[in-house]
Design brief:
globular
Length: 442
């Protein structure tokens, strides 16, 4: 084994471990890791820094940045506030219905827009509801945990919902409609199974009073707090038209035209910003998520550096040479993907595992490999609170809400409060991922 094959993967692994342990400094850690990776690649004659930068998947970054800006535009239109109030109305402020309705709403929303934006704007309304229904620690832990898992499933349901799916779309491994048709039913099945298991076996709403009069009062309080919130049609309509045109183009435009998904996204979001040019200029200047962009750019640089050493090809050959059938090789790969994602989070795991998936997809049906991988990554990102970016954000927002039990004790939402939900979600989603792959192979 050459020095480069030791040094480059070591930099990547150490960086991923440190960014998981030091979540508040994760961007700084990953940026420095990328710099060290470029230096090591140059000194060890793997590839110059310019070559690593040239092979970064810029199309993925373009889609992520553009969709992030579109999410901010929808937030400016107050769409998420209205969705939260609508969810309150549908649930009738009953603990059991709140659990189901908010989980489904976050699943649907996260399939179209940035789930972090949706969380930041919807969670405060949910917290108001929780304060008014006199919750218990058990209910809060499962309720907020299920919302996070629903966001992960919604993101995996569509090609534009989250980073792993976007990576498949932008790389040309799957078409928009091809991924949507395969992944959406699988994630919906996982959501329904998960909700059914929790409601039947855990019964998180058990012990919370179900008083119709109190529920009506809770609804009126929430409506009174948000009575002046209306969807700004001047902002919403251009954003909705833009999103509709992008979905149509991704689905209908022939590949032979050469109009790539990132170009569609770039022009579509640009159209929405031009139609509301004052707000568009503001969002371009201040609405881009520089943290996520820098994190993923640095991550891609490190992954490209490791790829240049041939480590990923060796990993793929190792799986191929396991003394088991190709079907079981895929099962082993999906299990490993879920566990690795739980430790290192979705972005790093998907970027590193995709090269191995490409190798498996040459011998097995591509949709079984790629969609199975996306589902396995979704399972891993639901395992621990730190496995997805939305986890620490939900923890911070929930802790700031100062939720209390009827006796006055503060309610927490942290790593251990989320863990039971995460373990159940991982088991269910990973099982669906493997079941989907086996069904596709059959």
């Amino acid at each position: 084994m050459t020095t480069a094959r030791i040094v480059m993967p070591t930099i990547l692994v150490v960086t991923l471990i440190l960014q998981a342990l030091l979540s508040r400094r994760r961007v700084l850690v990953v940026v420095m890791g990328a710099g060290l990776s470029c230096l090591a690649s140059t000194l060890l004659h793997v590839a110059p820094a310019s070559r690593l930068l040239a092979e970064v998947p810029w199309d993925v970054l373009i889609i992520l940045v553009a969709l992030g800006v579109l999410s901010r535009m929808l937030a400016e239109a107050r769409l998420f506030d209205r969705l939260a109030v609508l969810a309150t109305s549908i649930s009738r402020a009953a603990a059991l219905r709140i659990f189901v309705v908010f989980s489904v709403v976050m699943y649907v929303v996260s399939g179209v827009v940035n789930n972090i934006t949706a969380l930041v704007l919807v969670l405060p309304v949910l917290h108001v509801l929780l304060k008014l229904i006199s919750p218990q620690q058990r209910y809060v832990s499962w309720m907020v945990g299920m919302v996070l898992v629903a966001c992960n499933l919604g993101g995996a349901a569509t090609p534009i919902g989250d980073f792993p799916a976007i990576l498949l779309l932008s790389g040309g491994r799957m078409t928009f409609s091809g991924y949507l048709v395969q992944a959406a039913p699988a994630t919906l099945i996982a959501l329904l199974i998960l909700l059914g298991l929790i409601l039947l076996l855990v019964r998180p709403a058990r012990g919370i009073p179900n008083d119709p009069v109190s529920a009506q009062l809770t609804q009126r309080i929430v409506f009174a707090m948000h009575r002046n919130i209306r969807i700004d049609k001047r902002v919403f309509i251009p954003a909705a038209i833009s999103l509709g045109l992008m979905l149509l183009a991704w689905t209908a435009l022939p590949a032979s035209w050469g109009i790539t998904p990132e170009l569609v996204c770039w022009l579509g979001v640009g159209l929405a910003l031009v139609l509301r040019h004052q707000l568009g200029e503001k969002l371009i200047r201040s609405g881009i998520d520089s943290e996520a962009t820098l994190f993923l750019l640095s991550l891609f640089i490190m992954v490209v550096g490791v790829r240049k050493t041939g480590v990923f090809e060796s990993a793929a050959l190792t799986i191929q040479h396991l003394p088991i059938s190709p079907t079981l090789q895929l099962v082993v790969f999906l299990l490993a993907a879920g566990i690795i994602t739980g430790i290192f989070s979705a972005g790093p795991s998907m970027a590193a595992l995709l090269d191995v998936a490409d190798s498996l997809a040459r011998r097995l049906p591509p949709n079984a490999v790629y969609v199975g991988l996306a589902l396995a990554v979704c399972a891993g990102s639901s395992l621990f609170l730190t496995a997805a970016t939305s986890g620490p954000i939900a923890q911070a927002i929930t802790e700031r809400a100062n939720l209390r039990e009827p006796g006055g004790r503060y309610l927490r939402f942290g790593f251990f409060e989320f863990l039971p939900t995460g373990l159940v979600a991982f088991a269910v989603i990973e099982t669906v991922a493997i079941g989907y792959a086996l069904f596709s192979l059959a």
